[in-house]
Design goal:
about 425 residues; alpha/beta; Aspartate Aminotransferase, domain 1; Aspartate Aminotransferase, domain 2; 4-stranded antiparallel sheet; binds pyridoxal-5'-phosphate
Amino acid sequence: MSGQPEFASEEYALHRDRELDHPLARNQYLFPTDANGKPISYMAGNSLGLQPKSTKAAMDQELDSWATLAVRGHSHGENPWMVFPSLLAQESAAIIGAEPDEIVMMNSLTVNIHLMLASFYQPRDRRRKIIMEDYAFSSDSYAIRSHISFRGGNPDEDVIRLKPREGEDSLRTEDVVAVLRERGDEIATTLFGAVNYYTGEFMDIPAITAVTHDVGAYAGWDLAHAAGNIPLHLHDWNVDFAIWCSYKYLNAGPGSVAGAFIHEKHHAGTIPRLEGWWSNKPETRFLMNPIIDPIETADAWSVSHPPLFIMAPALSALHVFTEVGMPALRARSLQLTSYMRELISVLDPAEPGTEKRVHVITPSDSDRHGAQLSIRVPIEPFALIERMYVNHGVLGDARNPDIIRLAPVPMYNTFHDVWRAVTALFAELKS
Ligand SMILES: Cc1ncc(COP(=O)(O)O)c(C=O)c1O
């Protein structure tokens, strides 16, 4: 490492973890280990978060309630199953910046996209289009296109897909705003990824939401890569609806329950929605009337009774965010990502400006990114990620055609994890 700045040494990373910037809640999570029993450097929490140590007990508690209380578990026990969604909503409120009444935890993410579009996509006359980023996660595209077909529209005409400028990797807010202003009377709904899964860019939610409203459309956000990653203020930003999953930064486990936010201004209104018996007020639910007596909160969008075993792991996982707090999480996240960027720029052995050099496509402004850095690499990315895992115990992931994604998760990753990831990347690029 001679000739490198001091911060590029392993000793510096270890010293920073031990003496200066202690990990936030690392000891609350279970880490996969390598063949020698050493924890791997886990850089894939943007895809699937690590298991909290509390998860097993949380699952066991509900299994015990089922075993000992059976049907009485709906209304008895430590966390009666009927109130489970509201416990989750309370733990989620500070994460997304909403009132608990504006949150309903239910289903999985793509199902919630459909439920929200049933309400917030109301094509009429000329106003039939949904606007999104061209490089959105596939499921969002499929949900939007199928929804448009379902309403008798033409998905090839009714989706506006925004691309970055030639030679750029992410969207500029001013360009999104310009399209909204130009084509405002055609747009029914906007639905962007708040943090894009591919580029890691964080969109300007308040600015885009405000212009969406100016032109008379509804503003929706997919928070899959934003919830638990960046502090959000959905209520104050006046967002109409949002959806997210809880298996990424929120660490609730594969396939765990998803979330939906519906701003309180829509709760008592006439906006249509798909309903079931769990959309009915609890007091009159068991009267089994054929005509609904709707709840006047986001719960009105919940269709079925709570799927307990995808909810139980979420409750204890979300509680860690209440303990740590989003501001502390964000402060540490910015430290880890800027350290990763600095390491990449000083350790890249290729000459600046050459095609062999790696390139971070995630925007560098601190208000335009979260924990994930997406890095364009000069070789096939899937094989590279596999070699980083097998040879160095570093686990990130890859996306076609030339991107690797490394996410130092502020809740549990360390400076040393980051150092291991970046040195593994360049060791493999050199070999
Ligand atoms: C942005 C985004 N949207 C949608 C999905 C699909 O999620 P699910 O399979 O939980 O519906 C994902 C999954 O990673 C995602 O990242």
